[in-house]
Write a structure and sequence with these properties.
The chain contains one helix and eleven strands, in the order βββββββαββββ. The chain has 181 residues and is mainly beta. The strands form three sheets. Strands 1-2-3-10-9-8 form a six-stranded antiparallel sheet, with no helix packed on it. Strands 7-6-11 form a three-stranded mixed sheet. It is globular.
Length: 181
């Protein structure tokens, strides 16, 4: 799979939700590519004319030149667990900062929703990625995956119509993996 071609892959799921920077919440075009990212996963497709450029968006083009994957493989067949949410541990699900005297300041961890996404790790060889990102990657048609290096810091993925990179989770921060792809 040496060349990617345009395919109707939905980029919106790769974008941030309630992101601190508005440009993370929708795909953006720049140069020959249209990009989508939540700040941890980044996917690009050949430029889509219906998606405009955004001067506020970060320049992410350099990320592709930082490393390359030489060994590609299909994800292991598995049933990934469903996404889960849980009460925010910082505000105990109230959505408000505990130390706020009048109780009106929104929680900085959950942005006032009271709910956070359960941070379940998924094993990919020797590395870990977030469950939400694993769901996105395995949903792509005929996807292939591979680490940039033995350090397992960034997982690359590709399919007909898209290619991407996802940052690995730090091993010491997360529980036992819920699945392996």
């Amino acid at each position: 799979m040496s060349e990617i071609t345009a395919a109707p892959i939905d980029l919106q799921p790769f974008c941030g939700r309630d992101a601190p920077q508005a440009w993370l919440e929708r795909p953006v075009s720049r140069g020959n590519w249209t990009w989508a990212t939540d700040g941890h996963i980044l996917v690009r497709v050949p430029r889509r004319p219906e998606i405009s450029e955004n001067p506020d968006a970060a320049h992410v083009e350099h990320i592709w030149s930082k490393g390359a994957c030489t060994v590609w493989r299909a994800p292991l067949p598995c049933m990934l667990p469903a996404h889960r949410t849980e009460d925010c541990p910082r505000c105990a699900g109230t959505g408000r900062e505990r130390d706020c005297p009048d109780g009106t300041s929104p929680c900085g961890r959950c942005d006032g929703s009271g709910i956070i996404e359960f941070a379940a790790p998924v094993a990919v060889g020797a590395g870990l990625i977030h469950l939400r990102h694993a769901h996105l990657i395995v949903s792509l048609p005929a996807v292939e995956i591979g680490w940039e290096s033995d350090a397992c810091e960034r997982l690359r993925f590709r399919c007909a119509g898209a290619e991407g990179i996802v940052s690995a989770l730090r091993l010491r921060t997360y529980r036992v993996p819920v699945a392996e792809i």
